[in-house]
Amino acid sequence: xxxxxxxxVALQRIGELFAAEQRRYVDAHPRSLRLTGRGIAGFYxxxxxxxxxxxxxxxxxxxxxxxxxxxxxxxxxxxxxxxLGDTGSMFGHSPEPVATAIARQAHQGLTxxxxxxxxxxxxxxLTERFGLPHWQVATTATDANRFALRVARAVTGRPKILVFxxxxxxxxxxxxxxxxxxxxxxxxxxxxxxxDLTQLARVVEFNDVDGLRRELxxxxxxxxxxxxxxxxxCMVLPEPGFLDQVRRYTRAMGTLLLIDETHTISSGxxxxxxxxxxxxxxxxxxxxxxxxxxxxxxxxxxxxxQRLDLVRSxxxxxxxxxxxxxxxxxxxxxxxxxxxxxxMTAEAYTHMESLAGTLAAGLQAVVEQxxxxxxxxxxxxxxxxxxxxxxxxxxxxxxxxxAPALEQALHLALLNRGCLIAPFHNMMLVSPATTARQVESLxxxxxxxxxxxxxGRFDVP
Length: 461
Hints:
Elements: E1 5-6, E2 9-10, H1 11-28, H2 30-36, E3 63-67, E4 70-73, E5 78-81, H3 96-106, H4 117-130, E6 134-138, H5 141-156, E7 160-164, E8 177-180, E9 183-186, E10 201-204, H6 209-216, E11 221-226, H7 242-252, E12 256-260, H8 271-275, E13 282-285, E14 296-300, H9 302-313, H10 330-343, H11 346-369, E15 375-379, E16 382-386, H12 395-401, H13 404-416, E17 419-420, E18 427-429, H14 436-455
Parallel strand pairs: 5-17, 7-10, 7-11, 11-12, 12-13
Antiparallel strand pairs: 1-2, 3-4, 4-5, 6-14, 8-9, 13-14, 15-16, 16-18
Helix pairs in contact: 1-13, 3-10, 4-10, 5-9, 6-7, 11-14
């Protein structure tokens, strides 16, 4: 990367594209400008949740409706939605079976801290789909990861968690650490942090088998928590055999392995774990498992269950540190059952993977056509373009590959051409409702944006 450039593109051109796209956006969203341009009254920072400020747009547009893989705002603009709630609506907005289940349950009570007929159906469905015999339901994947790590510490009697540099597992404290020049440090930007998280976790680079073996040798790691693919940075795929080695060395050292599939559930009906025959001790999936209703699941093996039973029998009565009142509420269970039975099907994934392959090939062709030193990577229905050469090997390389100003300009250019992608990581998802025409539209929008940067012309419609 040369001085005065980002991702091989001159900073001046990036700035000119971004300025032109901002003007287009303002002109196309007069009603949203009136409602959100100065912030929404009553909300800190002008939005209901701070990450609504992470979009590259000058102000958020207000959604009127969303159906399938399309979204409409209050100014009448329609978008092919490849963000899909950052995976929360990975199977499309309001799938009919889920909408029907929600409507039915809405008249029968929303939460009452007792099982329903849906719960009786869901337990066997989870075992059949993901392969583990014991399950619990939580409200978010953050909660599920937190609870699973608590169990891992309880049954092993060990204090530390091992994470891979650049990982993301929600807002689980122990995972907010990074490697910088070989030192474990806090992730930048943490607010109100009073505990030294570096004392709770060990950190290794993804794909670094020697580093993993070295850190596990201390004998104090209760659990390795990992996504099978690093996704909340520029995407990093596991090198051949790496995940097998993770499993081998965790078993050898008496360390549990937790696979977090909250993003890589894009890989198939049983996630990356079933598609690649991984053998975790603990497993977490969240976001889309209830069709967009807040819910997550976490499961574990029979051996972990036996060890947990023993620990619980020797523990005084009291709060376990796992719970939350609204976990496994009746509404989320109804939506989850409908999703598992009727939405997360093999047929749906076949459609998703096929179109995602078409999308990845189309984006890569544009990158090559304009001589950009970028690359495209895919895991199942999830596709990302990365404004740096690849493939990337670990979290440090992924962090260095980010090109924030360039990515912002591209995001906004795509949005102004009717295609919504995630506001970070250049992430795009293909849903069962996504059409070939929408994929073609995204590829054309990407070509128009890249052409603007390559040719220095910012009047492309």
